[in-house]
Please model this.
Amino acid sequence: MEIQETIHAYLLTEFGGDRDGFEPGENLLAQGVIDSMGILKLVSFLEETFGIETDDDDMVPENFESLAALCAFVERRRSE
Amino acid sequence: MDLSFSPEQLALRDEIAKFARQELNQGLIERDRDESFSREAWLKCARFGIQGMPFPREYGGGEADIVTATLAMEGLGYGCRDAGLIFGINAQMWAVMMPIQLFGTEAQKRRWLPGLVSGEAIGAHGMSEPDSGSDAMSLATTAVQRGDRWVLTGTKTFVTNAPVADVFVVFATTDPAKGFLGVTAFVVERGQPGLSTQHISKMGLRTSPMGEIVLDGCELPADALLGAVGQGSKIFNASMEWERACILASNAGAMERQLEVCIEYAQSRKQFRRPIGKFQSVSNRIVDMKMRLETSRLLLYRVAWLKQSGQDAVMDAAIAKLYLSEAWVQSCLDAVQIHGGYGFTTEFELERDLRDSIGGRIYSGTSEMQRNIIASRLGL
Model:
């Protein structure tokens, strides 16, 4: 839950505009919330905040398309 | 960081500069005026081994390491005054050949790389669209799978080499719901039904033809797919990192050539009974040109070294691209100013350098986008 809250707060601050929040399953890619510039920031944030490493092969929709997908990705990386 | 060059590397740079000076500058004022592309010069470069320099020998390349290739391109820029030709070659090497080399299947590499190395084929990279430039991944071109074929529909614009290219690397979305991670790369050959190109005139780099690619229900076989479906963003970013790291190496060579021209002029041109170089307003300007050149070289070879040693170079490539492109524009302005009225004339060829230099602040990501990349890497 802590991971989700942290990522959610970051998404809201960086990409939220005037929104109140994001649903866990909401498609962030289709809506353009996370775009090609935004993902650079997001990846830096995830790496620094959660101490994980990402590489080019991680850049797939399954890891970034929603808040839930982002949480699952971070949890998976942390458990490795 | 090791920034020393071997005698062989330095000899190669000098050899390329000599070749370029002797073979590539003929009729340049007229070719620039007429927006005329020289296929002959393109082929001469290929025969010399320039297009294939960093690519594997099995495809006809020279298998040079990135530091050597960068140094060679600097030599090319020093000897060759045709910035358009150099730009077109770079666009092909880093944004067409490199993605095929890095992401293509063995069959794709064997099919396209030898011709691009030998100069028989010319390559173009189509990403920008009429409504998507800096935000390149918001493209509208679609790729729809029909059976074992792909159908591409859309328009690519500001495509270097498009009017003369035989092979095109183009990007399209295969799934808009996946945003930029739904972008996919394809290799398209000229002659494919549904593909056409048009010429676009421009202020500089006029010997390098630029144009539009129109994909009107262009049907492609399954093996036209470059990399995996949805891998377009990764392929594009890799291409741009290479391009940003290397495309301005020749500008460092051109800066050195221009510096020498300005020093010679400042020593020989006399006003008020002394060489104009004795006036600090002129000499200081030349000193600034020298400082820009040396700083550019340090940034350039740092990126080459980072890439050669397999390290992340996204931010450093953006810094180098931003600095070199801006420095080149400023040095061109200085060169024109130092030459006064002569600098303003076509005959002295400094006004062409200035027109050519402006493109560097726009292509491969604008200066503004490079700053955004650097800022994002700083956590801003």
Summary: The mean pLDDT of chain A is 90. The two ends of chain A are 19 Å apart (CA to CA). DSSP finds four helices and no strands in chain A. The longest helix of chain A spans residues 2-15.
